[in-house]
Amino acid sequence: MGHGKTVQDELRGPARELRRMIPKVYAGFGNLAEAALSPGALDAKTKELIALALSVGLECDGCIAAHARGAARHGATPAEVAEALGVTILMHGGPGTVYGPRAFAAFQEFHEEGKAGDRSAG
């Protein structure tokens, strides 16, 4: 079972419909996300790792999928993701041991997709 692409696929239609109903809310959220995740004192990869870890703590599958993809796109390694998720398990306890593996599986989906894209570009 995919924990990344499947979740994003399931949410795509309902999210699109809701976005049409409340476009200003989505635009504001998009601006906030862009500002929060843009490189600054912390690089974008670190920010995506933080967001992924928080997604596990919030037990939000949609957030996990989005930030697993973001972490993969910004060059996070499986070891970096695993360590970030280890901190989440420390801070969140038992639920972290359920949602942490989901987050790692989602990251691996997007990480493998990126590696396949790298091979085809060469």
Task: Describe the fold and architecture.
By secondary structure, the chain is mostly helical. It has six helices and no strands. The protein has helices at residues 5-21, 23-37, 44-58, 61-73, 78-92, 94-121. It starts with a helix and ends with a helix. 30% of the residues are buried.
Give the termini separation. Answer: 30 Å
Unreliable residue stretches: none
| Overall geometric form | globular
Beta percentage is under 5%
Helix and strand run:
HHHHHH
Radius of gyration over C-alpha positions, nearest whole angstrom = 15 Å
- Number of extended strands: 0
Fraction of residues in H or I helices: over 70%
Largest sheet: none
Structural class: mainly alpha
Protein name: Carboxymuconolactone decarboxylase family protein
Pfam family, one: CMD
Write the layout of secondary structure elements.
Blueprint: H1 5-21, H2 23-37, H3 44-58, H4 61-73, H5 78-92, H6 94-121
Which key features would you list for this structure?
mainly alpha, globular, 122 residues, CMD-like, 84% helix
